């Protein structure tokens, strides 16, 4: 790389909704940077604390263990935090609800029509990143739907994790359009809720890598 070339930048990948050992191992082998575990019982991909402990013990060094919560009790979050590296708040949590767990955290924003992302970024200034997801009334995430990526303000300084309907077929375009810090996928690499497809995981991560070579 010569002195005038821009620095190389790699988009990180989070595979969310891990419920099985074999899926965890496939995601790690494929090069996932982070694995997501859903602790909200309203999800079809939910796991409990005992299962979280079993799965998190199999995650190797340098792969981030992320726990997803939706307006849940602090005591549960505190317990789960023993097995996690990063907390993801996907409900209506205020900034104060996200602090105090001795773990870095990210805040998910559902991209409803009236949301002011810049204002939200200021409100959640302590967050390590903002996760931007599609909006469907009454559904806190995992809709399998995309949103209009042009609605993401170019002026955002907070790292953006792009979620919502990503698949091996559209993730390359998403990265070239949004230039996110990371992408987050769950249903787009599954046979069914919580049952991952090894080929789709590998193809998804391959497409992320390929997008950087274009």
From TrEMBL:
Coiled coil: none annotated. It catalyses: N-(5-phospho-beta-D-ribosyl)anthranilate = 1-(2-carboxyphenylamino)-1-deoxy-D-ribulose 5-phosphate. Keywords: Amino-acid biosynthesis, Aromatic amino acid biosynthesis, Isomerase, Tryptophan biosynthesis. Pfam families: PRAI (PF00697). Residues 13-206 form the N-(5'phosphoribosyl) anthranilate isomerase (PRAI) domain. Its EC number is 5.3.1.24. InterPro entries: Aldolase_TIM, PRAI_dom, RibuloseP-bd_barrel, TrpF_fam. GO terms for molecular function: phosphoribosylanthranilate isomerase activity. One of its GO terms (biological process) is L-tryptophan biosynthetic process. It is an enzyme of class 5 (isomerase). Pathway: Amino-acid biosynthesis; L-tryptophan biosynthesis; L-tryptophan from chorismate: step 3/5. Belongs to the TrpF family. This is N-(5'-phosphoribosyl)anthranilate isomerase.
